[in-house]
Structure to design on (598 residues):
């Protein structure tokens, strides 16, 4: 609801109904981004909080402010300058920042996230004005708990995103600049799922960097040393997780952009112990599985019948395979090993087999008993897959011959070229549709324009929209559900339930020319559905610890929506400093409230 009105669930700690307690006034209030409304403070608030004389006379609406802010944004010369403008706004007024993003979601998404956020991260030390999160240093492991403790009490933090900056958005090792990917992911959790922005914490684990350009840059702000690995690295990560669980025992930990050798290893180690998630391993897998399930439904196939070939067996490819494997196992009631028999992974040496050298632990379950590593075309001919996924970063590797061979054996082939950026796609939607006479069901890793062709009945020209497999449609809702039910861990069944929720909202279920997965334009509605499915699965699994969660779907949806933060100005209620909450006293350390730091 996120308004000044009361609701059935307005007594909840995360309720977004009613006024906001505020114990500060004057410039302290205006310098607190979660209180500041700028020119939108009402006449009463200006009197009650000593703002008269600090603001221009005219009282404006949030809509008027957003209009002015958009004009200022539009005047910036390039996307990086626009990204910097938005960061500055976030540091001043959280509601206006998110209102602007919400109103221009399609236009600004690529500016606050990939690819422009990648440019901002590469230039972190040169663009630096204010710190944007918690900086932990591997040379000061003994200070990890102390440094984290500055960010609040056990009741202050719901969602933590942490990165060690080793594998950022396809641009590699960015060292301490990785803090910006943590911050950007949290922006998406608020924008897409209503996670309260003043209850989140971006963290970077500064372990050094192997990026020579950064090491030679005299402006670089991180540890000027080679990246630390091995036992000391593991102790550092464990010190962080241990301290985070001790200080914020109800918080959800989201691992982001860790290196290939660490991402899955860290996730597998902590998953059984704490509520955690890795978007690169699980988020990509979840949104891709949702696209697969929707595509199979359109093609009148069941998940149990899937024959999946994944071209590219790195973190993303194996993560996708794992999500599909776990879903097959859940639906068929079989073991993971049995489910893995329906999945074939191909990497640089060819098909992964029991004779392939240097298989990772995660890859081994998919290795086939084969004498040699076949290439993609040979595997497609032999396996006759109904789903083909590309995470190889090898452009144009899904050739006309391969696609036509696949289409021989399945009426509606599901083909997902997911490599980013666009120039690295295994194929483009236009070719995939042309080679299959419009029968292919396509989703991509980047947005593409709709494709027109003579694919309707009697050769009538129709337009087909290829979906974008955007993780942001899935991971915020999983986080929201886990936070609200205070899950003690994130189980496979919770993730499968999330995927089913997304697949059930596939536009293609109503119109076969529509995308296989929902877009970011109605992502908050999707997040509610995902959160509901996640919470219900958590209750069934016995890992939901929150009390009095509604059981009826409609009530549960209302309960979820009431706790989703939205960019709406709520009235401020003056409370006495003595006895006030840390939030009311403006003591929460959020991005933009740490003062000017050069």
């Amino acid at each position: 609801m996120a308004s000044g009105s009361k609701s059935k669930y307005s007594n909840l700690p995360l309720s977004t109904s009613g006024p906001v307690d505020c114990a500060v006034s004057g410039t302290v209030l205006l310098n607190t981004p979660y209180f500041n409304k700028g020119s939108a403070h009402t006449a009463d608030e200006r009197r009650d909080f000593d703002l008269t004389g600090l603001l221009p006379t005219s009282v404006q609406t949030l809509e008027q402010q957003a209009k002015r802010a958009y004009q200022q944004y539009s005047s910036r010369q390039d996307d990086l300058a626009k990204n910097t403008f938005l960061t500055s706004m976030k540091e001043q007024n959280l509601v206006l920042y998110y209102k602007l993003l919400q109103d221009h979601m399609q236009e600004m998404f690529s500016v606050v996230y990939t690819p422009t956020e990648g440019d901002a991260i590469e230039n972190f030390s040169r663009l630096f004005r204010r710190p944007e999160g918690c900086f932990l240093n591997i040379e000061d492991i003994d200070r990890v708990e102390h440094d984290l403790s500055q960010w609040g009490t056990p009741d202050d933090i719901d969602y933590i995103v942490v990165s060690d900056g080793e594998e950022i958005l396809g641009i590699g090792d960015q060292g301490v600049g990785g803090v910006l990917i943590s911050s950007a992911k949290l922006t998406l959790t608020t924008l897409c799922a209503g996670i309260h922005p003043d209850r989140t914490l971006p963290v970077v684990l500064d372990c050094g960097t192997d990026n020579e350009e950064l090491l030679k840059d005299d402006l670089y702000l991180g540890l000027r040393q080679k990246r630390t690995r091995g036992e000391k690295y593991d102790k550092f990560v464990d010190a962080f997780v241990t301290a985070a669980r001790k200080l914020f025992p109800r918080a959800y930990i989201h691992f982001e952009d860790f290196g290939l050798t660490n991402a899955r290893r860290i996730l597998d180690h902590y998953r059984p112990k704490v509520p955690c998630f890795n978007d690169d391993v699980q988020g990509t897998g979840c949104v891709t599985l949702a696209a697969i399930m929707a595509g199979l439904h359109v093609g009148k196939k069941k998940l149990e019948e899937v024959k999946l070939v994944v071209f590219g067996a790195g973190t993303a490819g194996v993560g996708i395979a794992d999500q599909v494997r776990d879903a097959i196992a859940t639906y068929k009631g079989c073991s993971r090993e049995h489910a893995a028999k329906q999945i074939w992974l191909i990497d640089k040496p060819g098909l992964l087999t029991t004779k392939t050298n240097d298989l990772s632990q995660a890859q081994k379950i998919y290795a086939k008993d084969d004498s040699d590593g076949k290439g993609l075309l040979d595997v497609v001919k032999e396996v006759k897959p109904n789903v083909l996924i590309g995470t190889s970063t090898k452009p144009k590797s899904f050739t006309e011959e391969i696609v036509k061979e696949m289409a021989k054996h399945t009426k509606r082939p599901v083909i997902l070229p997911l490599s980013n950026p666009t120039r690295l796609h295994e194929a483009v939607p236009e070719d995939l549709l042309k080679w299959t006479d419009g029968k292919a069901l396509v989703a991509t890793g980047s947005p593409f324009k709709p494709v027109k062709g003579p694919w309707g009945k009697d050769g009538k020209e129709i337009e087909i929209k290829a979906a974008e497999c955007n993780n942001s449609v899935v991971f915020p809702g999983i986080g929201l559900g886990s936070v609200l039910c205070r899950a003690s861990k994130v189980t496979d069944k919770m993730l499968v339930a999330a995927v089913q929720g997304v697949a059930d909202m596939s536009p293609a279920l109503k119109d076969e020319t529509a995308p296989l997965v929902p877009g970011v334009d109605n992502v908050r509605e999707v997040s509610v559905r995902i959160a509901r499915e996640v919470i219900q699965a958590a209750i069934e699994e016995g890992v939901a610890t929150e009390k009095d969660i509604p059981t009826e779907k409609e009530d549960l949806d209302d309960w979820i929506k009431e706790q989703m933060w939205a960019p709406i100005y709520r009235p401020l209620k003056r409370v006495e400093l003595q006895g006030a909450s840390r939030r009311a006293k403006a003591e929460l350390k959020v991005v933009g409230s740490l003062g000017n730091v050069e």
Summary: The first strand starts at residue 20 and ends at 22.
